[in-house]
Structures
1.
Amino acid sequence: MRGAREVAQRVLSRVRDGARLAWIFGDRVGDRTVLRYVVSDEGGLEEHPGNVLGPVPSLAAELPAALWHECEARDRFGILFEDLPESRPLVDVRPAEELRRAESPEVSTVLYGPIRSGIVESARWIVETAGEDFISVHPSMFFKRRELEHRFTGVPLDLAAHVAEHASGATASSHAAAFSKAAEAALRLEVPERARATRAVLVEFERIHQHLDSLAKLADDGSLSVGSSQTFAAKERIHRLLAEATGNRFARGVITVGGTRFDAMSRLADVCGAQLDRLEAEVLAVLEALFSTQSLLDRLIGTGRLAREVVIAYGAVGPVARGSGVSCDARLRDGYLYTPMAGEESLESQGDAVSRALVRRAEIVRSFRSIRNALDGAFAGEHLAPARIEDGCGIARVESPQGELLYFVRFDGGIARVALRSASYANWPLFVPSLPGNIFTDFSFIEHSFGLSQAEVDR
Amino acid sequence: MSNWILYGLRRGILTTRYPQRSGAMPAGYRGAVTALNAPLEEQRAGIAACLSGALQEGSPAARVDALRCYQCGECVRRAPTAFAISPAFEVARLRRRAASFGRSVHVRHVDAGSDGSEEQELQAIFNPFYDANRLGIFLTATPRHADVLIVTGVVTHPMVDPLRRAYDAMPHPKSVIALGTSACSGGIFADSPDVAGPVDTIVPVDVYIPGMPPTPLSILHGLAVALGRAVPAGGAIP
């Protein structure tokens, strides 16, 4: 294995040539510390492992996408990065007294969180403000760190996807599918087509309910109570269908390494056969009504604008990237869960909250078509291929509702290391550059237009 | 320009009558695990598959800790003679006696380390299918106005102080609900040193609503239990 210094240089030149820096994370193999860089380009994912023998040059000064990853590798593995532009630990949960820092009398420091109003996940921002304007905003997060990655160690292979589902219960199918794909890559395991189609159906339903969640919250921010309630009602219909078809409203406990735990496809096909047309009509009707409510759209236009170059520099993924015209859809590449997915990638160019909302609307339409494609395939055969642990490692991705979700799995006798990089983790740092020019009351609009999950960030 | 009033009227009344009338989950819903009478050797395959330690050997049947179960269904699949799962949703348990509030209560939510789905199901009780407002249940943004504190998630170390402060800021009488298996018992993190522990190790809990996540009907039932309007499952917790 090469030294990490050399690997860092090589990765930097790959990114200069147009690849996207997706992930950097630490690993302990025997008594060696290994730094693993992951880049993505047209050809798919590439992992570049490097032995850590001393300080490693930081990429964060040139690539903002590297910042959180390098901070986390430093904090967890004691890896020294030369010229890392952030000395604070990534997990910054210090008490309020230690954080007041505004010095000018016109500027006040507001600590927003970790407990906020309404039904929201815990997270905190340090906001410096002079009245309505943002002067600076610094995320101070990871209050919810449960050390989920540690929880995989020693868990039997056939139960481990349950742990992955705990990373983000609202997107449990994406997490179970991405973890399983990484394990299958390590074990060189072929998954039966019927199981792959089942996974695709579940992940696309998940995309629909999470996009509806984001849109319902935006409608609520815009004081559109009936629109918000009706969008939440459409979301409820998806959960009811999933409960009937899979036994759980978020389709937990279906996907596992090698396929699915039971033959969910036949029940899914029955339930969808009876209900999908009506469900799709309901969802499309609420979207039509939302996107013809000009007062809501006016509130979103120009809000939280992200330039294409910023999105590229931060390595953003999912609807946040696509709203700024940056193509990034794992469904188009590396033999997704089941190909072909329906339709073209949905891109918008303005980079504001309405662009991200329009991307979500187009994706909901496309997800319904993809579900139909997967169901119409009527794949016969098994739902599960037997899996046996062999030493080795694998990396894989799934396009979760928030965007590209990556898992790494290493086997050494049993499960030795699991790491995950969620789409929310990749996208949160962009919240800061989306704020200048906006005012305090835009905060929740921008937050909900990102549509991220805190649990999968903190994990 | 869309007309939301017409849009809502066209859809008619969606709202459940629960808890005045009975509610139901679909037949295949994995709600509550029960143990069947079975010899120890038939119980073991199911017990070994439980990542949260909810199951223990017992005679004539295994013992199920409902507050630890995350409803994955592995025990039933691996030991079908020893375990069964039903679509039961009235699973909330009461530790003390229900607090006496009037007809209307204000609820404050705190996320202490959830997986994110508990929040979405709590949000769902306000959607038109459940409409918790019709039961006099309202959300409040400040602990000063709160009668009931709903806590989601296993409590992580950094959330211990914020949770305590939210509890202390509430006026008396007050009631605390642990919402979700992780909040009730820690779930798969029950024995993990990386977290502080279940909610009742930090603040006193009155009502436990297990489930991963609990369905909106389970949450309505749990709220009704907390308000003394419904019968808890499985008797009081010692």
2.
Amino acid sequence: MMIGNWLDIGPITQIEPGTARTLPVAGGEEIAVFLTMRGEFFAIRNQCPHKRGPLSQGIVHGDVVTCPLHNWNISLRSGKALGGDEGCVPTIPLKVDAGRIYLLRSAVLGEPVSVEDSIVQDIAVQDRAA
Amino acid sequence: MNAPMNFEEGTPTGATGSRERLVVIGNGMAGCRAVEEILARDPGRFDVTIFGAEPRVNYNRIMLSPVLAGEKTFDEIVINTQAWYDDNRITLVSGDKVESIDREHKRVVAASGRIEPYDKLLIATGSDPFIIPVPGKDLDGVVTFRDLDDVDKMVAAAGKGGNAVVIGGGLLGLEAAHGLNLRGMNVTVIHLMPTLMERQLDEAAGWLLKTELERRGQTILTGANTKEIVGKDGKVAAVLLEDGTEIPADIVVMAVGIRPATGLAREAGLEVERGIMVDDHMVTSDPSVLAVGECVQHRGLCYGLVAPLWDMCRALADHVTENPTGYEGSVTSTKLKVSGIDLFSAGDFSGGEGCEDIVMRDASRGVYKRVIVKDNKVLGAVLYGDTADGSWYFDLMKKGEDVSEIREALIFGQAFASGGALADPNAAVAALSDDAEICGCNGVSKGQVVSCINGGAHSLDAVRSTCKASASCGSCTGLVESLLSLTLGGEVESGPKTMCKCTSFTHGDVRAHIVEKGLKEIPQVMQELHWTTPDGCASCRPALNYYLLCAWPGEYVDDQKSRFVNERMHANIQKDGTYSVVPRMWGGLTNPTELRAIADVVEKYNAPMVKVTGGQRLDIFGIKKEDLPAVWADLNAAGMVSGHAYGKSLRTVKTCVGSEWCRFGTQDSTGLGVKIERMTWGSWMPHKFKIAVSGCPRNCAEATIKDFGVVCVDSGYELHIAGNGGIKVRATDLLCKVETEQEALDVCAAFIQLYREEAWYLERTAPWVERVGLDYVKDRLAEEGAIEHYAARFRFSQQFMQDDPWAKRAAGEHEKLHQHLAEVRPFPGAKMENA
């Protein structure tokens, strides 16, 4: 089932518009989940391709975040550095359904997870909210 | 007739003289339109039976809003009267809901027990309103906005007057709110997202819409999350928000969205994801079952608007009449049906790689237009206030036309862009007569602008200051620039740097306009000053936030998302993403309690380094963002507050020990330093601001490389300004000499306020004084009563600023900034945790 591939990371109200929040994952990395001023959600690795600055702490304008360390502009949509800068940060497929945010499980965990893995049962994946 | 019948799959019974039986579930717009399309192609092909859950004939659902608003009656929105069903020999089974589909025997079963066999089944169940799962959702008085019954309930409630709360600020919610407002209710709209109609509008257009609705008396709460619908005696009484606000309600309209009605299809074992899965011919996973409208999912998309439905019905009819064409998905556009509000939105305006925004604003007419272009094609458009060209942009978009030829004039609309030679804006301006008005705000004609340019105004800025053209709202900036290049050829001089690429105005212009026009919100500044981007950039947002904060102390609400990370987190971000924390030490003084608290924090949070700063305090390094509030709570407990070492704000007041201990000291420099720091701490500035007080001309506190430096002498206090260390060291200039401590404090406050009000954002005192000149600063402060005037304004502003931000954060303010969303740990037994 499609739904089984998605990881429920909670209600959309957890993130204030124009900001991001973070999600630590295995290996000490973080995913930054953004809500733009217009109400679009994006998830990218929380690490600027330049000097690993925490993008979650940057100023969000349009669908771009400006890295807090050296002002690189990173597209939230593609993960690519904009302007004259070269680099790309991985994006994580995200969807919103019935007021909850879902991330693509395989992208979050780095590799496909078998159905037997306990996380499949443990992490609540809700169908459309009743 | 109720006996089960078996037909061979796909056998066209029509060929043998008897008709195929087509059963339609859903008497709505999609179901009936599909039947109409089929009849138009092959009227004799099917015996048609339509089931409708509503006890009435087919009507135009999208016109329910005008019915609610009292602008239309039900009869006026009926699409097909009973006569249509009769004439086409269609059996209408209304008010009897289909309960199940028996695919094996090819029949449907209705609530009444009626069984209807089919050869082809068409599911057109549309969508259901999404009910947010909050306590009280089932109370009497909570309604949705989906069918005529809902409208009747709302009209009845409105008849009694009182308060209506609409949950959902999308298309449907706003139309409901408009109708209830017109019917005399006090309407509050609660919207979860920051922008109304965020699927269709960007922030700028959403702000204009919100302002207009508020002007009409509606209360619009954006970023508001419903916690509970409060009831009294089983009837709705109020809506409670997450933040504790309670809004009285006699009726609550739930209009947060719709979801495809897929229950029947799912139970019948058809393939269903978000919607019922269909191919390009609207055929489901069962070849005998078709589906159309809002209940389907086609190529991954579900639609909630009417236009795609027409396209689907055509493809469906082509298919069942054996002339298949195929549906390829729709590009949609939206108009809000609220009288007097012109709003149009189409396509994709979320931006992305290679996308270019063309923005035009006309503040005097309340117009905002944005067209998104990629690879010379129109990708989307948002229009507010003037939607005349909406269908033109939509047409360009659907056809994917190359707009490179008309690119320059595209935003001005069809009439302008299609004008052949006039599509070159320079040519269009050249064709204007000399008395044509260029600047409406200041009444400046083309002839006047040209003579001003010929008179020596060779830059935009020079024109603005000479004849005022484009100096007010800036909407004619493009015209003036055209005149400059027409008149001077390539000789146009670039003026002073604009604030950023989002505007043609300089920092100075923007500051002046904010005060003169009384602009009090960031989106308002952007609209009134014709920003060329929808929501600014990382350069202008923090600047505007500061300018508004400075102009309207106590009134403007600081916009956290326009703050650089350090000011948002109240700590200094380091290269590894951790933070450093500097508590304030007044005048560089400390005591055992403070030192103990700092030592405890260092140990408790494993801070890898503590460093004495150049500003006479201690910097604790390596604190994680989630530990910051706890660190601050510990420091607060020892009486320490934020040192603002992270801010464009007053940093430190460095002192020497002065006359109290030093054999050379002439005055109590430490005491004065503490007084100055108590007066100035917490103030936001254009840039960081450092102060020092030295007790004698030996100047141990290095006061002559500070933004404001006091050097004590026997006869009083020398006050120095505009020094800094940094890349380019600049020693201070002497501003004046005063005799008393109080005078020194007053001049300090006045100088700071002058700097706060007149310098550009990110301009320190040194470049500011070099730009405006030392004499200018001296003259401004030497004017009659100037010191008192500026010092009073500074002190007024300070009463709102001297509130320790750390204490507020430690108490839980903006806690989400410090917490992780959740944690994902892929090992057995792992659970989602809210950090």
